[in-house]
Specification:
CATH architecture of the largest domain: 2-Layer Sandwich
CATH topology of the largest domain: Heat Shock Protein 90
Shape: rod-shaped
Radius of gyration: 51 Å
CATH class of the largest domain: Alpha Beta
CATH superfamily of the largest domain: Histidine kinase-like ATPase, C-terminal domain
Structural class: alpha+beta
Helix content: 40-55%
Largest sheet: 5 strands, mixed
Order of helices and strands: HHHEEEEHHHHEHEEHEEHHEE
Number of helices: 11
Length: about 475
Amino acid sequence: MKHNFFRRRVEQVKKIRISFAVKTAAVYTLLFSLILVAVVVGLTSAYTTYAVRSQNLDRLASFVAGRYERPKLPEGDGGFSGHQFKFSAESDLESGLENFAQANGVFIEITDDDQSQTTSYGDESINQSGHMDAVRRVNTPECHLRIRVVSGDASGFAGMSDHAFIGLIGLLLLISAVFGGILIRKMLRPVYDITQTARSITVSDLSTRIDTVDSHDEFRELAETFNGMLDRIQESYEKQNRFVSDASHELRTPLSVVSGYANLLRRWGSKNPEVLEESVQKIIEETGNMQQMVNRLLFLARADRKSQHVHLERFSVTEMMREIAEETRMIDGNHRLTDHIEENVVLTADQALLKQALRAMMDNSVKYTPPGGTIYLSCRKRGDRVELEVADTGIGISEKDLPHIFDRFYKADEARTRGKGSSGLGLAIVKWIVERHKGDIRVESRPEKGTRFTVSLPNLQELHS
């Protein structure tokens, strides 16, 4: 139980979004702090070591100077506390200084100012630049001496020379720069992934995506945006492929019909008037269907390229609806057409496009309503909007097909629409026209009960594109 709780907590922490700028600042602040701590610790240690050595060297120099200031010691004098050599009145001073220098690892140099003589004790190789030293002067009536004690250890920071210490700081900076570069490169991994993904994408493979599991900053958002863009590109590409495939399929049928009747004409048309009339009629009919489909394909292609122009004008919707009603009554005698058209309904829109949309909806109602059925056409004002409605008592649309009826080349159940000659493009054009006019379209339908299309358009004086 506790294990699951902690695991959930860890997963929640991992999902917290931390800005790249914050992470970068944290990395370099940490590295700078580590370098600063190392420098402070090094300087503190060096200063402490230097102070201890300097103090010890001063004590040694003071001890040697004291031997000359008090060359005769009382019996039983313990000498210099803390060292193994003791000087007494009977001891040999020079021998004692030599042993004292070797025992303490120092070099002692004594200069007699009166006689200009210098005497040294200990390892003379110690006497060089870079080693600490301490100087004491002895001024007594008997002598004037200058005593110099040189440490066996080199001066500098913690036993290192100044150049060595500076080199160490430079090495720490280099290590920090390399380590920081590695961390920043890891944080920038999504950018490299995006670059590699972009290079690997081809028309034949759009499935590559960037892994966003290990990123929790702006780069995760960038990667997700890039993946979303690839999803949209892939969807558009697949839709375009389906569009081309469906268009080819839809054109193949009428072309096959035309080809078949053309062959029939060539064989029997000149001898049989009935075959001639039927063949010519079918060729004209299928040619018209192809022409209509090609026109719709061109319309949608222009719409996709945003080159389909919309010519806005103020016109009477009442008159337009009456024209459509009269045209339908003239060409369709198999259905009963009723209308309810309000007076003085005006609209700013592209009249030709709007009439094309209404005719497409009327054609659908005529096509999918059995003979003797009713088609209803209406036009009315609704506040600051205008509603246009086309309804019928036809075969209706099933619930599973309703969400897709505006998709290009989509057709409902073939068993219900067989022989209707639908290309599946009309309603796609209707939807584009309505949306281009900032309107919306609603569909209500029940199988065997009929379908109702309601178009709602803004009743504005000027429509901005």
